[in-house]
Specification:
Length: 121
């Protein structure tokens, strides 16, 4: 069954290195907490706020083993008044037998306040 796993993190600075590291850390944590392998992932969709312009999150994620053939996509979030700056969000579509209530969604850094109802268990 296909499930969606959500996550978000804040990025310290608008650099290629920080954006790539944030993407890898976020996805690695999601995979670890949910016991997913790269070959179970159908697609990864990132969105970033307008102030993250130095690199695509997917560029950093491609450095992880097992992501060469995973479809990856980046998009920019709409500008919403009062939204969290320097923020990266992710939606991972994964083939899993887990029930929705057993999925661990991961919010790191300043992004922890975005969805306290979905915080990791």
């Amino acid at each position: 069954m296909m499930r969606g796993v959500r996550g978000a993190t804040s990025v310290a600075t608008n650099t290629k290195e920080d954006i790539g590291q944030a993407a890898r850390t976020l996805v690695t944590k999601i995979m670890s907490l949910n016991s997913f392998r790269g070959d179970e992932i159908s697609a990864v969709i990132f969105s970033v706020t307008k102030d993250l312009t130095a690199s695509f999150p997917t560029t950093g994620l491609r450095k992880l083993k097992g992501f060469r053939l995973v479809p990856l996509f980046d998009t920019q979030e709409p500008e919403v008044e009062g939204s969290l700056p320097m923020c990266m969000r992710v939606l991972i579509l994964v083939d899993t037998d887990k029930e929705p209530q057993d999925i661990c969604h991961v919010y790191l850094g300043e992004a922890r306040k975005l969805r306290p109802d979905l915080m990791e268990k």
